[in-house]
Amino acid sequence: MQMLGDNKSLPITSTRAITIDASKDIVWQLLMQLGAKKQGFYSYDFLEENLKSKDKNPDLKIGDIIHGSAKEDGRLSSYNFKVLDLNPNDSIVLENWGTFLLKSINKNQTRLIIRTQEIKSTSLLTAFKNELIIPFHFIMERRMMLGIKMEAEQKKNPILSFNKDLVWLVGVALSFFLILLIFIALKSTFYKILISCLLSTIWLVIVFLFNPEPTYIMAFLLVCFFLFIKLNRIKS
What angle do CA 66, 69, 74 make, to 5 degrees? Predict the structure, then answer.
């Protein structure tokens, strides 16, 4: 599907979408309030407490900057997003991010589609850095899309709350480090590869395919913890 801002010279393309039970106009107005000193990024509340403003800001226009930080000194300028192109009530293209497109399913349902594009890196260091950044970006963007859905539908989604978000993110981080510790604790090369690959696959499925619900990641964290304890007992 062709979208505003598509660039054929950027071979790496990623497209994500979510169905929202609200009209296109409602979702568009939420997109117009993206950024610091506006409504934030509709993502994790505990990360965005100082970003949001109760004031309603004017709609965005080409050339405007969506700020990623509430600081005036611009220290986080790399997290600012310039509006490169805009088709009112339809799509918006942000520099260093991608394209946001709205498609009406019917008068009460809208499909929010986000596409990012990038060039394939020839530098090993840059490629490695991107591989670390992409999962983090996905986690943040998915939560943003769910947040926009919740805000547009004006109902409280039980999956999304301050405490659940915090527990989920902590569980993701701790289970990741436990997998690394288990890899180090295993003596056999065969089991290092086998168990680490198995645990990593489960971790990826929970993080990227399941809803960000703490039950799954905390159960997995407990499994990793008991496995790590058992390995250390065997060693001693």
Answer: 90
Rounded distance between C-alpha atoms, residue 75 and residue 81, angstroms: 14
Place 74 in a pLDDT band, splitting at 50, 70 and 90: very low
Say if residue 35 is in the same domain as residue 133.
yes
Q: Are residues 24 and 105 in the same domain?
A: yes
How many structural domains does the chain have?
A: 2
Residue pointed to by tokens 């619900």: 213
Asked whether the whole model's pTM tops 0.90, one would answer no
Q: Which structural domain, as residue segments, surrounds residue 85?
A: 12-153
Is 138 inside any structural domain? yes
pLDDT of residue 70: 67
Cα–Cα nearest to 182, from 216, 144, 221: 221
Residue 76 has pLDDT above 50, yes or no: no
